[in-house]
Amino acid sequence: MNLSTSNTEMQLPVPISYIAGNYFIFSVDAATFLRREHHICGVTAGTLPQVPQQNVFTGLPLELMPEEARLLVEKGVACIVDEVNFQKQGMKALIEADRKKYLNELESQGRETMQLQVRRKEKLREGALKKEAEKKAAKNKKAEAEAGAGQKAHTTAAPSTEDAAAVSLFDDSQPSTPSQVSSRRSSTIAPVDAMGITPAVSHPPLPQQPPAEHLLPLPQVPSSYPLFAHLHSEGYFLSPGLRFGCQYTAYPGDPLRFHSHFLVASTEWDEELDLMTLVSGGRLGTGVKKGFLIGGADKNAETTGQAGDNVRCFSIEWAGM
Question: Hey, what's the torsion of the CAs at 265, 271, 274, 275, to 10 degrees?
Fold first, then answer.
């Protein structure tokens, strides 16, 4: 099944990688598609190797809660893939010709990336040379003007901007311009000097849709899943609520555009609640300009078979006289 999007054609179901008990999305196209079309944001879990303590500007992969993964599978939007076995068996089954082709493609991408980097550095260097030549020319011109026309013979002529920019930085014996030097050096990058490319996805060479023997059943979810599914069906974006001491935070729209409206805590339908829990939750929610929402599934209510259709919610706010 193919679904056309604004930027790319997303093939369904979207594979969710199951690795060490966690659920990940490695494709940026899949991450943007799930966020735009299905209100699934997840949490970015990738950091730069050079900045291992980075905790603000994280990137791919996108880690999903078990509730998010299960909801997508139940809707037929995604499937759970045993990524470790899929990678091992897939790479073992890869024939040598395909393996070499894949490695050559990565090497070609690395050379192109290195060429772009070299050209960018050379462009910056040319700009710096040009500015330096202009400064020297302006300085000499000012000196000539101060010395007057009679002292012109004693003043050393300054090189023009074009002459200064034409000085080669790499080989003084070759009177070539920096742009020519940049083109010559970027076109002769050796394979050993090519930049290493680490693909974010494994296709190619592995198939985008894994075989059925590598698919896993529905994820195990906590008892709060019916409440999660209910709020999601009402159009809310949900994210982990650990920062506010709850299970989820509920947003009326994309979290990039809206603040959350509710601190969400799941309860069983016949569970006895401590009054202090309601008071503290209501005060905390009001203190951070949110409502404290509790809810649970009524096991005696009629259901259509869809998760969350028998859930009732209550919002609590603190109001002092």
Answer: 80
